[in-house]
Design a protein that fits this description.
The structure is a homotetramer of 340-residue chains. The first copy, chain A, is of the alpha+beta class and 340 residues long. Chain A has one domain (7-339): Acetamidase/Formamidase-like domains (Jelly Rolls, Sandwich). Chain A has helices at residues 55-58, 259-278, 282-290, 326-339; strands spanning 7-10, 20-21, 28-30, 34-40, 67-73, 81-91, 95-99, 124-130, 135-139, 146-150, 154-159, 168-169, 173-174, 177-178, 190-194, 202-208, 225-234, 243-245, 249-256, 297-299, 305-312. Chain A has a nine-stranded mixed beta sheet with strand order 1-4-17-6-15-18-19-21-20. In chain A, strands 3-5-16-11-14-13 form a six-stranded mixed beta sheet, with no helix packed on it. In chain A, strands 7-8-9-10 form a four-stranded antiparallel beta sheet, with no helix packed on it. Chains A and B meet through helix 2, helix 3 and strand 21 of A and helix 2, helix 3 and strand 21 of B. Chains A, B, C, D: This is Acetamidase/formamidase family protein.
Chain lengths: 340, 340, 340, 340
């Protein structure tokens, strides 16, 4: 990355949103190291704006989780890794929406966990966002109760075109990333994604002003975002499942069903990542991580469930610090922020 | 709880350890509010003492996870709740053991996730515990690497006699508690357990000097403990699944397979707990918790997997603070600690 | 087995029914080769007798699935196998009952697959049994429709005391047998059960006039039975999971959650059983069974789900015919039937 | 269907095979009622021809499970149902291949059920097909054993373009059909598939000379096929999950993970199908099917597992006989066969 890094600002028109990973023509070509300043629409395509806007009535399936992108990254080829550093994720509105959705969510039967029961009632909550004080205000629907919570903005959906000739709905998380819905995807974090097709075809969307772990009801505090990311490329190094790195942690993700498989994928990936970078044998890494890993859930509601395995870098042997690019991207982000 | 609370010290002889929840005669009868000062042996019954002590050779199945107890709590009846406050959990040795165990753990096939592959190699790690500096030292088996980690002592196994006339192995976590293996079970926390039989028949064991979330390889940093707990009784209030309360959090647990069911149980229990105590409707509590819950895994290796759902008390409406006994038990614990 | 085999008739009084596997004193001691003529009560303990007898109101949890037994089999020790041959299973009444039960069954949320939805409505169906014509008559509750089906009597619950010092509810299927709920457990079949404790402690119950595969709503066509079984003992041969043998098939079972683990257990057990008896390598047996196995589900509603793996004996290499006792027990059964 | 039904013969060239459902241009347009005479290549694209042709070496991922098609069915629109009647499925060769594949199959860890164990050994079995005697000859790899089995040809992969803008690998079964791998997909059966896109885009492949239920090792007796199907269209009637109908049975399928979800989907679909066609209430249909359904597994190895729920038509109320087209297609098939 050099001082002359490209900065690309992109705010899609209504027709430019994309609803899949794979299968869409690139919105732009960018060079590795470029800064993307993008607007992302909320998961409802902006159609849920009041308590009366029931998802089943106002949304137009499968046109959910609109993606900003895809961006063709020059030089990216299968076997490489895309490093996406989140410089900032800022709500573009002073409100956000959440809801129950029929046959969707963890505490309801669904189209897959199919039962004879009627679905849960459909309900919408409009949250107030105070961008100055960085808070989200919950208004209970059935009583006067209000609760103010810290804002903790994140992107639910971050990914590249999938492997195996597939095109996946933007609602799906899998090895290509996609709708992982982890609160770890916040500003200051670098996300590593294995490249499956030429150009990688990176896109993002589904901003959340905040979200609990598991996204239990299936829908977070959904809002449009103005986000800045740096997109870099690591040549010749594959990444089997999406990984994240913060100043403090390295993290692996797994997305699968049942949930124990998502857990296994993330834990095995972290064991192998740590073993490779630390010189520990796989069994030693298995032992060390068994005693140190944190295992927060990301989503237990989507087409695949997503589990995160994370470990503090200072619990690992020296020089086991991820891909060796996070610090550089972090510094580039700080330069960007100081200039804007 | 009054100043004249009983203090019972109990260090089981080798013959006094118990290997089940339910089915064992009580070691002692205690009054609600009593302080128990107990010794617990490690999960291997103390038989793994060096790298050459392979579990499959030195342990005598099913005599694993020895329990200290059970204690008959006077006045406890089905429909009540036992409140167990952890005053202190201190390693009784300056070393601890961990290991792989054939066909046990998350990253191996098991007797249930049955495959034709040979099991992983069996290996033992002996950890050094520095009780002054409160650290655990990891010695890699296949290289010279050492890593020093903070000590964070906990009990893997805490429970009462189960319902439904059953007797369960001390290796099993379920609605009666048991082998939940959550790092949240540390000093300063109150654990709430629904009473299923007269006297509740409380026991505990399986101390860990520290453990990651999920206990991936199936075995934590296992050591004997000297622990102090206050056992109190809440009459007439049932608790469907084990719950925990710290100064900062209220937490529910679920133990089941597949892992998503453990998640569902814990989340639903927390939704209902918060709804009842806060006056929120169930759907409002579902929404609020979706945006605030933390969902760390406890174990993904035992007979049932255990998932934790926890939320900061200051994210909840005022006066939604658990059973109303934690603060009192916390104060009693501080008095005890100041006097001992 | 010789001509002087004991014949024991046992009809439990109301107080003699047992509700667990393990933990109960034997009703009688029998010699290997004995014939047991027993009465078994239905799963509701006979309390559901009309459409108005809702399970949640008339039944007394956990007193469900009453067992006839346990029988102490002389000489049976851990490591042996009990061979239970079903001579006849005959409904003891001209009616049977089925029902929905709140939070129980495959097409409803349950206490484990926990959701915020209200349970399905509770409903009872009384079936007419025509023991002459060997039919079961279904009367629809919400319309005039009637359907006559063939009777195919079976026992849902057949087992021995479990291992690991445990006592399990009679509603649980596991390695000790128990509530497997497979329609394969019909007259003419031999069931092999691994012995876990001295005397084996065999019991049975939960007769079904007929049942589909999976027992989808959780409850079959439940009725009391007059059943005749021969209980034999195979010394020194362990059986890890319950197996069955008919004139045509050998079958393994697995009971676990998630359902794929039940499948894996049954399939792996059958691969190993066939490999051992046929001289095929495990990989060859894996290949042969992949192309020949039938995999009907037994139950997908109980505490553990049960999967069956069965293969026609004439698809296996010669002399791969189970334990070598089925033909003898079959002949003994025919002698018994011709004499009674 | 009229006497002038189109007959289209299509044998794809090597370049014409397709590897996905969705995303491919049609090979031909056909009118409803047309007869398709097609050649399908085996799942290995014909590359495994001897015991030395290891899948990991000779196959070119993701170019597996080549599809013959897609065929654009004139007039087919979302909300319609395609009825595909299998007239004949005949092996095109006198041999077939099967194999283990690293990290694929039910009795091994996989990329999703991820463990630290090394994969099972890779092995190939070449089966001899005797098309006169209609047998498949198994040759054990590690001994001299041979077993002759009846031939029972079927197609593992039958489907249409998926919904939700997706393109799925031909290895995936889901609501669009695809790689369901059920032995029920044999000649004489009609398969009903919901149409998701204009023209439906039907294709098929993955012929098996025979297969057990569950396809345990992940690979059946794989061979090229000459197959004849009649493709008809039922306007205005949606089909949520693939259904099948034989002269004797109606059947629903579900494809999902965990396996209990696949079971739930198939059972719920059959309950609703029967309820709608019979006039039974849903609870009555639930009860009737609980006592009559057969629940054989299809595959427990693919990206989604597939479960079948089937019931004898003569166990259902009169006039509950599927879509009302099977008999007509069956007659058309017989006319075709008598003329060819």
């Amino acid at each position: 990355m050099t001082a002359d890094a490209e900065v690309l600002s992109f705010r899609p028109s209504a027709e430019q949103f994309v609803w899949t990973f794979g299968g869409a023509a690139p919105m732009a070509r960018i060079r590795p190291g470029s800064v993307l300043e993008v607007f992302t629409e909320d998961c409802f395509a902006g159609r849920v704006r009041s308590k009366d806007d029931l998802v089943s009535q106002v949304c137009d399936f499968p046109f959910l989780n609109p993606q900003t992108g895809p961006f063709y990254v020059e030089g990216a080829e299968p076997g490489d890794t895309l490093a996406v550093h989140f410089v900032s994720i800022e709500p573009a509105r002073d409100w956000a929406a959440s809801s129950t959705v029929p046959l969707f969510g963890a505490l309801t039967s669904t189209t897959a966990t199919a039962t004879l029961q009627p679905p849960l009632p459909e309900r919408v909550w409009i949250w107030q966002l105070d961008r100055e004080r960085r808070t989200c205000l919950f208004n209970a629907a059935d009583s006067d109760l209000r609760v103010e919570l810290p804002m903790d903005p994140m992107h639910g959906t971050v990914g590249v075109a999938p492997a195996n000739l597939e095109v996946r709905s933007a609602l799906v998380p899998d090895a290509h990333g996609g709708n992982m819905d982890t609160p770890e995807m916040r500003a200051g974090v670098t996300c590593y994604l294995g490249v499956n097709v030429e150009g990688a075809m990176f896109s993002l969307g589904d901003g959340h002003a905040r979200q609990g772990e598991g996204e239990t009801c299936g829908v977070a505090v959904e809002t449009a975002m103005n986000s800045v990311v740096i997109v870099d490329l690591i040549k010749g190094q594959p990444t089997p499942w999406p990984r994240l790195e913060s100043d403090t942690y390295v993290m692996s993700t797994g997305s699968a069903r049942p949930l124990e498989d998502a857990f296994r994928i993330a834990q095995l990936d972290l064991v192998r990542w740590v073993a490779r970078d630390s010189g520990l044998s796989e069994l030693d890494a298995y032992q060390l991580l068994t005693q140190t890993v944190e295992s927060p859930l990301a989503n237990v509601c989507d087409v695949n469930y997503t589990s995160v395995a994370k470990v503090r870098k200072d619990f690992l042997p020296p020089r086991t610090s991820g891909y060796g690019v996070h610090e550089r991207l972090r510094a580039q982000a700080e330069r960007y922020l100081s200039e804007h």
